[in-house]
Design a protein that fits this description.
Strand 17, helix 19 (553-565) and strand 18 form a beta-alpha-beta unit. This protein is 35% helix and 15% strand. The protein is an alpha/beta fold and 585 residues long. It has a six-stranded parallel β-sheet with strand order 3-2-4-5-7-6, with helices on both faces. The protein has a five-stranded parallel β-sheet with strand order 10-9-11-12-13, covered by helices on one side. The termini are far apart. Bound molecules: thiamine diphosphate and magnesium ion (MG). Thiamine diphosphate binds at residues 107, 416-418, 439-442, 467-470, 495, 497-501.
Length: 585
């Protein structure tokens, strides 16, 4: 067993050393394999189905590599691993109890799947041997084919039949999860397998030999054809979609856009992919673009999609009734993950040149192969950024954030629905980590805490701007952040409503001629108002607010940032009036 050299470890929950090695169990071998993979953390809610593995992590590994991150809901455990992977690109583990814990985790697994994020999910069941089951409880917590609950949105699952088979299952799971397009995997350990006594820990495999493959590169012929199209384009547009957090990759995308003098678009669905204040960044990042930006796409004679998430949707929206006539170069290996159960693959785009690889593999080759394009670039007129009012709104919140973070490195881990992408610029791949993938509300707190865990010690402050609905569904992640001293700032844009759906009711009422006045019913979260700052304080965090005056926003945010910089967790309740700053679908 490698000694843990992890500098990632949080100085919490250090076990008393016991008399180790009096004997070994199947779960010791599983834990040892996880350590060989250098997995720093395992987020979990405990359960008897994996008490063997739990013991092995605490007492065989000494709660290091991986270290347990205790959570209060399985959805949070998975969301933490998701947020961590979004920042680091590294695999984190989560463990969930039997069928019931897995059922709690399901939505978060779907989010990670849609977000193409690597995640190692462990589960447990049984004993599968019915003769060994305790009456009642083991029976209701045993399912045949438990993995079926998540099979439609995981890359692989397995229920190994012996401790030795478990080693291979864990290695394969980690390899598959980290092979692009990445995603969650599920390995389910029978109770009895974990609790089987074994005579010794066999020599562990060299994990380097089971690593994910290096990036696949596009065929040179495809690169030169794509380069020719781009170099001679009249109005090229680059759609910077799913890109890595690598600073080198960021620089190469900028260099490619500059060499081609091409307009670039990004989306708030995904992490920062291009500096939004660059002269070639054509429009604020958005969920849906305005008409002027759609026109830019419609008029493009060559589109370079760098794994754009909904390429068919954008082209269809832009060119309206007619098929898109420009040439389309699509750099993406996402179709390896396209399956039948979920339509998260989006529409089928028309593609002229398909470079089936990750964007970081293709961009340097394209950069070298293109010739400088001398033609001009026609950028759409920029809608003026709305002026800052002296009332509370997303606009005044953005202005206060900008003023409060002038000399602070920030990672935005969540943006609220209704955010105008013009408000805050991205200048670094870690400035914004994108949305949750599956639009499953309630992931905001967990993903923020996971991102905070990854950023701990870097000096970059995670800041989440999240809806009250999103916060309230997942708020017990605050306790986890406080317990593990994970600096975090959450600003709750508290409109005391599932407001997105008020808008839907309003639209339905308009179409159907029903009373618009009723659109709040079954949506508003007031009467009583929920004391969000109080909920934070009761879990040991700093709670600020409710902030009701625009003039108080900056001071509140400065206080929150100072708290996070001092290693604390802070939640600010900002009372927003209902309403969004953008129009969307
Ligand atoms: C798990 C889940 N349940 C319900 C929805 C539908 N939904 C989409 S947005 C939304 C409201 C979210 O409320 P909040 O976070 O307060 O943001 P607001 O709409 O108020 O801006 C809901 C309920 C969803 N996307 N996911
Ligand atoms: Mg709300």
């Amino acid at each position: 067993m490698n000694e843990s050299s992890s500098s990632d470890a949080i100085a919490r929950d250090v076990p008393v050393p016991g008399q180790l090695h009096k004997g070994f169990w199947g779960s010791d071998l599983i834990a040892a394999t996880v350590r060989e993979l250098e997995i720093s953390y395992i987020a979990l809610v405990p359960g008897s189905s994996y008490r063997g593995l739990h013991d092995s992590i605490v007492n065989y590994l000494g709660n290091r590599t991986p270290q347990i991150v205790l959570t209060i809901h399985e959805e949070t455990a998975v969301a933490i691993a998701h947020g961590y992977a979004k920042v680091t690109g590294r695999l984190m583990a989560a463990a969930v109890h039997a069928n019931v814990g897995l059922m709690h985790a399901v939505m978060a697994v779907y989010n990670a799947w849609c977000d193409r994020v690597p995640l190692l999910l462990f589960g447990a069941t049984g004993p599968w041997d019915a003769a060994r089951r305790r009456p009642w409880i083991d029976w209701i917590h045993t399912s045949s084919d438990q993995a079926a609950l998540v099979r439609n949105f995981t890359k692989w699952d397995n229920q190994p039949g012996s401790p030795v088979a478990a080693v291979e299952a864990v290695l394969r799971a980690a390899q598959i999860a980290q092979t692009a397009p990445r995603g969650p995997v599920y390995v389910n350990f029978d109770v009895s397998l974990q609790e089987t006594k074994i005579s010794a820990i066999p020599p562990l495999p060299d994990t380097a030999r089971y690593a994910p493959p290096p990036p696949v590169h596009p065929a040179p012929d495809l690169v030169s054809r794509a380069a020719k199209l781009l170099s001679h384009a009249k109005q090229p547009v680059i759609l910077a979609g799913r890109c890595s957090r690598s600073l080198a990759g960021w620089g190469e995308r900028v260099a490619l856009a500059e060499k081609l003098n091409a307009a670039v678009l990004t989306t708030t669905k995904l992490a920062a992919a291009f500096p939004t204040d660059h002269r070639l960044h054509a429009a604020p990042p958005a969920l849906y673009f305005d008409q002027a930006t759609e026109k830019l796409v419609a008029n493009a004679d060559v589109v370079l999609s760098l794994d754009w998430l909904d390429l068919a949707g954008l082209l269809k929206q832009a060119s309206r009734a007619t098929p898109f006539l420009g040439k389309v170069i699509h750099v993406s290996c996402d179709s390896h993950s396209h399956r039948g159960w979920s339509a998260d693959h989006q529409g089928l785009p028309p593609v002229d040149l398909f470079l089936m690889c990750e964007t970081d593999a293709a961009v340097p080759l394209l950069l070298e192969a293109v010739t400088p394009r001398l033609g001009s670039v026609n950028l759409p007129p920029r809608a003026p950024v709305p002026p800052v009012q002296n009332t509370i709104s997303l606009r005044s919140l953005a202005a206060a954030l900008e003023a409060a973070t002038l000399s602070v490195d920030v990672c935005y881990t969540r943006l609220p629905l209704g955010w105008n992408g013009a408000y805050i610029h991205w200048r670094h791949p870690l400035d914004y980590i994108g949305h949750d993938g599956g639009a499953g509300i309630g992931s905001g707190p967990g993903m923020t805490v996971g991102a905070g865990l990854a950023l701990k010690g870097t000096g970059r402050v995670p800041i989440a701007l999240m809806g009250d609905g999103d916060f309230l569904m997942g708020n017990t992640a605050i306790w986890t952040a406080v317990h593990y001293r994970i600096p975090t700032l959450i600003v709750v844009c508290n409109n005391r409503s599932f407001f997105n759906d008020e808008r839907h009711q309003r639209r339905v009422a308009e179409w159907r001629g029903r009373p618009l006045e009723n659109c709040w019913i079954g949506q508003r979260l007031d009467d009583p108002d929920i004391d969000i700052a109080g909920m934070a304080r009761m879990q040991g965090a700093v709670g600020i607010g409710p902030v009701t005056e625009a003039a108080s926003l900056q001071a509140a945010i400065e206080e929150g940032i100072a708290a996070a910089q001092a290693g604390l967790v802070c939640v600010i309740d900002v009372r927003m009036p209902p309403g969004y700053d953008i129009e969307d679908e």
